[in-house]
Design a protein that fits this description.
- The protein folds into 2 domains: about 20-180 and about 275-390, 3-Layer(aba) Sandwich (Rossmann fold), CATH 3.40.50; about 185-265, no CATH class.
- It is about 40% helix and about 15% strand.
- The chain contains 12 helices and 9 strands.
- Strands 1, 2, 3, 4, 5, 6, 7, 8 and 9 form a 9-stranded mixed beta sheet that branches.
- A hairpin with a 2-residue loop joins strand 7 and strand 8 (about 355-360).
- Helix 6 (about 225-235) crosses helix 8 (about 250-265).
- The longest helix is centred in the last third of the chain and has 24 residues, at about 270-295.
- The protein starts with about 25 loop residues before the first strand and ends in a 5-residue tail after the last helix.
């Protein structure tokens, strides 16, 4: 922690540290978290497949809660074409691609328990049972993220609830919780170009050709390091065997997959990050502003916002914050934003943590960053809905 400040800007204590001061009040918490461990999205072609059987999907009793999935207006859950696409194929063993496993359910339950310790046990910020007046739960319209949100809430409130837990989602074409190639034509063009370029980086080409030979993947099969990593990490998480050549290439696969994703979303490409997470960042900042201003709306009264997302959301989010550590976010990874307000001066601060560790945001002098400075840091990447729609209709930046 940096040197202490004057009284008006005295350093507030963080959630879960046990060293709080009476001068500051925690006003709002927002958590964006990745789903838990899952079955792979695709199998590596021509490589001995792991057996992804239904026994890996057993739902632990302690993760069960009473919940309902709704659209953003409170109506029925909208159609889920991405999920339907997953279910057009099966993996060896009989399960579908991209399904949350028992391990993944437990990982999110464990994250919920960490949040419980921070915001219920050590600090009485939330009531001990779920109350929809306090908590807003939002998820992409994909089963693994919906189930992940459910498991987190179960861990956070230990299955205690005053009412049914609503989990809000929206149609694929309107989703902003991930880079939406379905809605944003310009993003589809830009990311498509960068994806193609990433596969042609000289070092990557040489390594990819070597690993294809080692694994016996015939020429003509389209694979890349992100696909290989996804299958490899899923196997490893569940204790399933990997082909020996794949095990020996583990470090290279990880390095090259991160190199690819950095090329695709790299922070040097401001427009790519804007179109990927700009509307989501604007949503987070709007929640903060509404809380500070006391805007009279049903959402402004919430204390906790939970967003169940994907790694393709967290990576550009971390890049926009300037804290991406060149490591792929693990299953159940979380980025947490806390809003604090001085009880006398009403000065506001934002504290960001990633994987439970406080982060110093570039441009901020302390992990407790004045709100205006934090907004300035993100201003290059946030997009209002109107600006997003306008940019998406273009053919180039």
């Amino acid at each position: 922690m940096s040197a202490s400040r004057g009284k008006a800007t005295a350093e507030p204590a963080g959630c879960g540290t046990g060293s709080r001061t009476a001068e500051y009040e925690l006003k709002l918490v927002q958590v964006a978290f990745r789903h838990g461990a899952r079955t792979p999205l695709r199998s590596i072609p021509a490589v001995l497949e792991a057996q992804w059987g239904p026994e890996l999907l057993r739902v632990p009793d302690h993760t069960q809660i009473d919940y309902v999935v709704k659209d953003l207006q409170g109506g029925p859950r909208p159609p889920a074409p991405i999920e339907e696409n997953y279910r057009t194929s099966t993996l060896s063993g009989g399960t579908y691609p991209g399904q949350l496993t028992t391990l993944g359910m437990q990982q999110l339950y464990d994250l919920g328990q960490r949040l419980r310790r921070n915001y219920i046990v050590e600090v009485p910020f939330l009531t001990a049972a779920f109350n929809s007046a306090e908590v807003y739960v939002r998820s992409t319209n994909i089963v693994r993220t919906i189930e992940s949100a459910k498991c987190l809430v179960a861990g956070l409130f230990q299955q205690k609830q005053e009412d049914t837990v609503p989990i809000f989602t929206t149609e694929t074409e309107n989703e902003v919780l991930y880079p939406n190639y379905h809605k944003c034509n310009l993003l589809k063009i830009l990311i498509g170009q960068r994806w193609a370029e990433s596969s042609q980086l000289p070092d990557l080409i040489a390594d990819l050709e070597s690993i294809q030979r080692a694994l016996g993947i015939p020429e003509g099969h389209r694979v890349d390091f992100i696909l290989i990593r996804d299958d490899m990490v899923a196997r490893e998480a569940h204790g399933l065997p990997c082909p020996e050549p794949l095990s020996s290439w583990k470090a290279t696969v990880e390095k090259r997959a991160v190199q690819m994703i950095c090329h695709i979303y790299g922070p040097s490409k401001r427009g790519h990050l804007q179109l990927s997470v700009g509307p989501f960042l604007h949503m987070l900042l709007t929640n903060i502003e509404d809380r500070v201003q006391g805007v009279a709306s049903s959402r402004s009264s919430k204390k906790l916002f939970l967003y169940s997302v994907h790694d393709t959301t967290l990576i550009p989010f971390l890049m926009a914050l300037g804290i991406f550590d060149k490591r792929w976010p693990p299953y159940a990874a979380d980025i947490t934003l806390e809003l604090y307000q001085h009880r006398v001066t009403e000065e506001t601060f934002i504290k960001v943590s990633y994987l439970g560790q406080d982060q110093l945001i570039p441009g901020c002098s302390d992990v407790y960053c004045p709100l205006e400075k934090f907004k300035e840091v993100l201003s290059a990447f946030t997009l209002t809905a109107e600006c997003y729609q306008s940019l998406c209709s273009q053919d180039d930046l």
